């Protein structure tokens, strides 16, 4: 019998992409957006390497490494870096296909999240959910803003893929996104003061 996957206990990754980048541009201008892009890229790499490594490590270190190696996103990142470093031109038809797939990704992920929440029938208001949606203050404005973003839907996908507590994660995504309508505005209003502390 395979070992049980770990339950969700750590704070899941924040939605620094679709949600955070436009807010960073609005609140901090181009320099803030540049910083937010770096934070976003680091969080994506960590989410899709460290997350699966930890989720898959219930079967040992080798199982954790195999879990990371099986992820298509890891191979896509490697291929994109290789194409970029070697300056390989991407044919127009392939580029358009990739763009269409990229545009379809978020709606499909959100549909999957909605199905999970619909099956649960309610939000799971537990300690881990409230921990996941709480704000985390850091010294720099960009990090504070990134930390104030709602829980990323990628956390739900990883939890579901590795048999973790996907109901808790789905509830954290939904509740933190709703709460961010107020909390993101509050953090943006406080950014000038936070900047003075940095």
Q: If you had to describe this structure to a student in words, what would you say it looks like?
A:
The protein has about 200 residues and is mostly helical. The protein has one domain (about 20-190). It contains nine helices and no strands. The protein has helices at about 20-45, 50-55, 60-70, 70-85, 90-120, 125-135, 140-145, 155-160, 165-195. The chain is globular and about 45 Å long. The N and C termini lie far apart (about 50 Å).
Uncertain stretches of 5 or more adjacent residues: 1-11
Q: Give the terminus-to-terminus CA distance.
A: 51 Å
Number of helical stretches of at least 4 residues: 9
Question: What share of the residues lie within helices?
Answer: over 70%
| SS content category | mainly alpha
Name the shape in a single word. globular
Task: Give the percentage of residues in beta strands.
Answer: under 5%
Total number of beta strands: 0
Largest sheet: none
Radius of gyration computed on alpha carbons:
18 Å
Q: In total, how many domains does the architecture comprise?
A: 1
What series of H and E elements makes up the topology?
HHHHHHHHH
The whole-number mean of residue pLDDT values reads 74
